[in-house]
Amino acid sequence: MTSKKLKWGILGCAGIAKRAVIPGIFQSQLGEVAAIASRDMDKSKRTAEELNIPVAYGSYEALLEDDSIDVVYIPLPNHLHKEWTIRAAEAGKHILCEKPLALTEKEAAEMAEASAKAGVLLAEAFMYRYHPRYQMMKQMIAAGEIGEIRGIRSAFTFNNAANKENVRYRKEWGGGSIYDVGCYPINAARLLLGKEPEAVTVQALFSPEHDDVDMMASGLIEFEGSVSLSFDCGMWAAFRNPLEVLGTDGIIEVPSAYVTGEPGSGNFFVSAKGERREIEVPHVNAYSEQADHLARAIIDGTPLQFNASDAVKNMKVIDACLLSARERARIIL
Fold first, then answer.
1. Is 99 a catalytic residue?
2. What is the DSSP secondary structure assignment for residue 290, as one 8-state letter?
3. Integer CA distances (angstroms), 198 to 133, 220, 227, 255, 301, in order
4. Cis status of the peptide bond prior to 100, with omega within 30 of 0
5. Which of 47, 111, 249, 294 makes a 20 to 30 Å CA pair with 94?
6. Domains in the chain, CATH or no CATH each
7. Among the listed residues 72, 99, 104, the one whose alpha carbon sits nearest the alpha carbon of residue 88
8. Among residues 82, 93, 99, 316, which one is catalytic?
């Protein structure tokens, strides 16, 4: 394993970048944040100074022209993901793009194709997947510790509805709860089951106060074998993010399935054979793990655990969920 560190460039000064991803890259073993760009040079400079980033650019183009940058992270609003992923790929940069990867399956496929053509890697920033507990849960399921899976339940909700200027509430920009947080339960169910859905049915609250985006949604995602994910997501409800895997002989419960912080927050519970036990999970920074996983693939050629085609498949389900919610219909995939 080489000791080389990748130089990251950040396209945009979004809150998720400043709060979580940039600190995670700084804490990673194989990466360092070398530059940040904004369309507002003053904003770029302020963010660079605040986070000790060496170089600030006043345009995304300028950062992509920097030959020292190996990989870029794109935390821009959803409707800009396609354009800047493709432009980054054409500039020869590897890419970590925020979830959801795109606005549609078609856009995601175009992004994956452009990256492959340019010979660069493209990964979707679902950081939760790199936390060791998900591999632990998959191993428990495969070992039959809870028997056959009968269903999965999950939710991801928070309340930010008063902030009506937020980009999440711009319909044309890819706003809405399914795009923003519903994508997590969908992604987690696909990950744990190792299968793609067969049909979806979603009901949603569309808010005229918030540019008619879905502020709350509840859905049923059907997989083969009569197994389903029941989920809800929202941006106008109390915060929670649990996940439960129900088996014939036991249950896996994850109180905080997608967000971890303090030591112990990544632990989960298994109920089987008449007892409920807490499974202690190593305390890690999932954002650092995400950065290092991509770095190993870039430096050493280690296969990505989740490549661009996985993101395309996830977008196919999101497309169906949004269509189902708008048409109040069951959509077969």
1. yes
2. H
3. 27, 11, 10, 27, 33
4. yes
5. 47
6. 6-127 (3.40.50.720), 129-284+315-332 (3.30.360.10)
7. 72
8. 99
